Structures are given as C-alpha cells and as structure tokens.
Amino acid sequence: MQIAPLTLVRRCALGCAIAAGLLASTMSAHASQNSKPRLAITKITATDAVKQQARADGDSSTLNQIIEGSDGQLGVSFMNTSKFDMVARSDLNAILKEQDLAASGLVNPADPQTARQFELAGVKYVATVSIDNFQDITARAKLEGQFGSTDAERRTIQLQAVVRIYDTTTGTMLGATNVRLDKSTVNEILPGATEQGRKTNMLLGDVTTMFARQAANAITNTLSPPRVMAYTMGVITFNRTAASGVQSGEVWEVFAPGEELIDPDTGESLGAEEISIGWARVTDAGEKFSKARVIEDYGIEKGSIMRPSLGGLPDHVDPDGRPTGSAPRSGGSTRAAGTPPRDRGGDRTDRGVRNATGTDAPAAMRKMAIFVRNNASNVSDDTVRMLEDQVTSQLNGSGVELISRSIVLNAVSDMAGSGANRGTGDPMNTAAERLLSDEASASSLASTLGADGLLVVSIASYDTDTREFRDEDLGVDRVTTFYMLDVAWSLLGSDGGTLASDMASARTGIQQSETLRRDYDPLNQLMKDDARLIGDGVAAAMNSQRLAAEGGEADMVEVDISIVLADLSIPEIVENENGDWVVTANQYRLSPMNATVMVDGFIVGSAPGPIAMSSGQHRLTIERPMLETIDRFVVARKDMSLVIPMQLSEEGRRQWMETAAFIEGLKNGAVLRAVELEKAQGLAEFMRNSRITLDTSNVRNLSVGSRLLWGQLIED
Asked: Which residues are CB-contacts of 480 (< 8 A; sequence separation ≥ 6)?
C-alpha cells in the first residue's frame, strides 16, 4: 500500500515554534523516509483582556498586522527547509468546487492532474494559539548633537502566546507551553528633515520574520532531527545549515537511534531511546549542509542523530581527540544485536529461491484451488463468479495455475460422504465451507485436486455510510455517501493449515452538492479494488513462503580495541653522553594489558586486540583489576578501531600514588638523582607486575637512538 505524503496544514503561523517541541515524543511514527510531519494550526486568537488593552492603547492594528503577517513569513521559512508539504485549508471551498467539476464528467479523468475526491490530507495533531500578552512600547526623546536637536524614538514590541497541542483522534492535550518575543528598534530624525509615516513600523516585519525563522527551525529540528549524511576520515557532514542556526565552533553530540520506549503502566509512547556514541565540533556551517570534526567515536555512521550540546564537552571527553573513522559507503547495518538480518533477496530459480545464505528455500506453490463464498445478505450470489474472475485475473502472470470454484465443488461432491460432511445432507456450497473449515478435510480436498494449496475468498460485508457536513466559516455544504466492501481471504496449505490470511477492504464515496448530483452503484468497482488487494496479498504471502527459511547469520566484523589510562602519563627519560638519565618533554600514555571484554554480557576476549562481533549495536563492557569498569554502547562496523580511556579505581589510584608520586616533581631537562632513579625502578616493577605498557602513538618526536629508561626497566 502506498503511503500518501504527509503535509503540513497551515492556516496561521504564531505558535509553531513551540508546537513542534511538544510533539517530540509522539511523532515517532513519522520515522519513515517517505513521510513528512503534518500539523494543523487553528486561527490565532487573543484573550479578551489583550484585545481590550490594544484598543485602549490604540495598538489594535499593530496586533492584527503581526498576527496576519506571520502566516506568510512562516510559509516562506518552511518552504526553505524543503522538509514540509504545505496546503491551505482556509480555501477548502474552492478546492471542493474544483473536485466537483472533476467528478462532473466534464474533465478528462485520465489526466494525472485532475482533482480526486476523498484524498484531502488529514492531520494527527492540532495546535491552538492564544495571545495572552502584547505590548507596543514607544519612548521618545530630544537629543542635542553637532547639528542641533534630534528627535529620537525607541520602539519595543513584546509578545507572549500560549500554545496547546492536541491529538485529533483522542482529544488528549499532549502539552502546553509559552512563546515569547522581545524586539526593539531606534529611529532618529535630523534637524531640518521631514519624515512621513513611521520608520519604526519596519520593526513589525522584523518581528514576524524572526518569529517565522525561529518557528521553522524549531519544528524542523524536533520533527526531523539533524542526521549524519556522510562520515569520512573523522569528518561528519550533516543536514543543517547556517540559516538553521548552526555556527562554527559549536559542540554537537551524536546518537544512535534506539527502540521506542513504552510506559509499562499506561502503554504510552515516551519517545525513542537515543544512545550517545560520539561528540563533534562544527568546523563549517554552509548553505546546504554543515561539517563537523569528530572528537569521540563509538560507532558513528550515516543516519546517526545529532543534537547541539549547550553545555559543551563533558569532562570525560578529550577535546583534542582526533578519530579518523569513516562510515561504509554502501551503508552499514543498524540492526540491534541479536536481530537477524533483513532478507536481501537472492537468485530466483524455477524450483525455488536461493536466499541470502545461498541455500535453497522451499519451492513456491504452483497449483492453487480458488473458492469464493458470499456471506453478505445484501450482495447477490451472482457477484461470486465475478469476484472469482477478478481475483483470477489479478493472479495471472504470477506463475500459479488456478483451479476454478466449479471444479472445487465437484470435488466436494465426491467427498461429501465422509469426514466433516458425513450424513449432513448440506447443499454443496455449505459442504464446501464445512470441508474448508476442517484441516484434515481441506488436506484431502487439496490432494484430490492435485493442488499445492487452497485460496478461500469470502465476501464479508457491504455497507453504506451517509454523512452531511455544513460549515459556514469554511463555506462547505456537502452530502457524502461512502460504500465499503470487505472481503476476507485465507491461503491454506496442502496440510490444511492457514499459511496467510487478511481482510481486503475497498472504500469509495459519492459526493452530492449544489453543483453536482450523481447516481451510481460502485459495487463492481469495489470488487475490482478488493480483487487487486487480494492478488497483491496472496502474491506477497506466497513469496514469504518461498523465503520462509531463516535469514543468514549476522555479518561478523572485527573491532580493534586499545586501552589507555585516562589522565595518566609518564615523562620520557633518556641516557645522555655522560651516562646520566635526563627527563625530556615527551609524555608516554600508559596502556593496560589483558582487560576482559564482554559484548552484550558475554566474555568474548581481551584487550588490546581485535574482538569479533556481529555488525550493529552492542553493549561493550571492559573490566580489569585496579580500573573502573567501562560500559558503552557501540555500533560495530567493518574495520572499526576504538581507543578507550579507562580510569584507575580507588585502590588502583592509591597504589599508583604510592609508587609514582615522585613523577609530579620531575621537570623537563632535569637529571635523575639516585633516589629518583631508585623510585623509577620501583615504578617500572609496579607497571611490569600490573601488565601496564607504554603507548607511544601520541609522541611525535621519539628520542631515536637514545637509551630509554622505561623501556629497559620494564623489559628487564
């Protein structure tokens, strides 16, 4: 079924900036790539007190100009985001008249641009806006200057509105909040100059433009959060621009989207879980996209969510981090750990299908009997043959040989003396239904017919629903009758078991107005629509049978994991030509060995080194004596490398300070004294026993050719 594009219904503007924020936890259903959020905003209102105050102050026209002007500006801002389709319901009557003309027979119905009835966009959420505070403040003064006295005017507009968001189906208020604006401008009239009009009226345009831009950005960021479009060599490209508020130097946090969170007590959706997997700093805010340099990467990939961090980097993140990862060009897997991969299709052959693992899946049905029955009292039995013909037509070309209902009834006649129908004396149609309701009998019937399965189609109901709608404000006066034909179908295997079933529900309507009258029985068209739905459903069910074998195992990848001690390093100490040990400016990071690595709660190996795991999201836990346990969420991908900083535990910190406190007093260029050399030997012994080695990857200028104290002591 094709999903119609979601649109934003606009009738006014004020309040949109907050309306979107309130929908953050309720719009998870709009994650589909082919959908856009749809929101109706009712006509803006002001409280009686605000209108009375504006009239008393002579500011009614200013208030009305802001309210009306914001609508057009908001439309421009939304169009610039390229993320919303927009439709104006305030002109609904004109749209319906065009649909009447299209349905009158005067317009070519085959023209793809001809208006279609009953396809007006609906909305899931509606926002109401009420202004509860408005001030237009003007301060005037005379200023003495070089050219004489100058008339100066400072004008300030303050606005506050309450925005409420409702679910249009349940009527439940999802939230309420305030939006505030405060904007000022100054104008000076030089001596001898004359001015007609009021220059500060330009402030009104500035207020509406600023509000519209903020509203569009707020709604876009909430309903369609910023996402990673590309990740190459440690640089992220994401879908936000300078116009949307992105600035160079900003810190953004990167998240992997998780599962929807459901309150176990109320069943309410609390939004989707977001797992932090990295940090980045914006380097370029462009006109079409922006770029950011990654600071920390625990599985960033294309499609990851990004959000600005108002508090900057947390303390545990190294601001000088420079990961150099890249996202797979063909798109990596984002499924959760333990989830089997989606079917990627395979090479279809005459005897079956080769699935993603390369093994043969079960062969498809090749011969299927069809039986159509009528359970709707207001539908003539003559329609049964018509529906059978239409379903048969829909399945032609699918590689299935269909056995007609008449042959099925003949087979039932031969079997009526046994099984479920023994001694009943039921008419043949009823006997067939009894046979098809019994698995053993259905199996026998399929065997008798030489069929691989049975398709049972039942006309369930044919209903009408007449509605009258009159609304003077919208200028709408219509009487509409809807016709609904429900047809159930079941696909039975040769063993009598139900392989698949569904309900095909076709709908249409006839609309009457002052300009259009129509007399038409849509039953035949509804049967054609249901037959098409049944054909699509049966074809999909048969395809799923052919691919019933479980998908292959998840793709395995190796993640190279290295560990360093956070905030700990020791200075390089080399032997000079006089045989003295001298402290240099180089600092070595420390790398603990033999750390236990667990993936999703299972021990899988030790670090440093490569760890095998399936691609996708995993919970990574690293444990080691004397260190605090690391517990992170990682999105594993091919050729991924992680350098994970770990903190000393309280006991580890105590032991370190007992043996390494002298390090704090060593200065660059200092010569080690005998007592310091002895302490260095003790520290080396501690590191050797604790399985801690030197990490020189961050040292740019190693003292090549010199004897290194730590290397000799630790290796001795």
From this structure: 466, 467, 468, 469, 509, 510, 511, 512
The CB density around residue 464, as the number of other CB atoms within 10 Å, is 12
pLDDT of 29 reads: 41
What predicted TM-score, i.e. pTM, was given to this entire model? 0.45
Q: Which one-letter DSSP state was computed for residue 322?
A: -
* 287 CB neighbour count, 10 Å cutoff: 8
Residue pLDDT, tens place only, 117-126: 878 888 777 7
One DSSP character per residue, 230-263 reads EEETTEEEES--GGGT--TT-EEEEEEEEEEEE-
CB-based contacts of 650, cutoff 8 Å, min separation 6:
none
Looking at residue 487, its pLDDT comes to 93
Please give the pLDDT value at position 270. 72
Partners of residue 479 on adjacent β-strands: 468, 512
For the chain, how are helix, strand and coil distributed in percent, rounded to 5?
25, 35, 35
For residue 617, count CB atoms less than 10 angstroms from its CB and return exposed for 0-12, middle for 13-18, buried for 19 or more: buried
Write down the architecture of domain 556-715 according to CATH.
Sandwich (2.60)
The alpha carbon of 443 is separated from its chain's Cα centroid by a whole number of angstroms, namely 45
Helix segments in 376-460, DSSP class H: 382-395, 405-415, 428-436, 439-449
Choose among 239, 322, 255, 333: nearest CA to 287.
239
- The answer to whether domain 225-308 has CATH 2.40.50.140 is no
Instruction: Tell me the torsion sign for CA atoms 159, 165, 171, 172.
Output: negative
Distance CA 16, CA 73 (A): 12
Rounded-to-integer distance, Cα 99 and Cα 437, Å: 46
Sequence ranges of the chain with CATH classification 3.40.50.10610: 367-546
Indicate the SS3 state at residue 14.
Answer: coil
Q: Which residues of the chain have pLDDT under 50?
A: 1-34, 331-364, 413-428, 431, 435, 437-444, 545-553
Q: Where in the chain is the domain with CATH 2.60.40.1120?
A: 556-715
CA-to-CA dists, residue 367 to 374, 398, 425, 445, 506, angstroms: 24, 11, 30, 13, 27
Residues of the chain with CATH 2.40.10.410: 225-308
Q: Are 280 and 295 in contact (CB under 8 A)?
A: yes
Whether the ω angle into residue 625 lies within 30 degrees of 0, i.e. cis, is no
Cα–Cα distance, 291 to 242 (Å, whole number): 11
Q: CA-based angle 160:166:172, to the nearest 5? A: 130
Q: Where are the alpha helices (DSSP H) in 458-613?
A: 523-546
User: DSSP letter at 516?
Assistant: B
Distance CA 629, CA 622 (A): 6
Cα–Cα distance, 640 to 328 (Å, whole number) = 10
Rounded CA separation 608/644 (Å):
10
CATH topology (fold) of 367-546: Rossmann fold (3.40.50)
8-222 — its CATH code? 3.40.50
- Taking alpha carbons only, the member of 248, 240, 246 closest to residue 224 is 240
Name the packing angle between helices 48-57 and 60-81 (round to 10°).
Answer: 120
**pLDDT confidence of residue 713:** 60
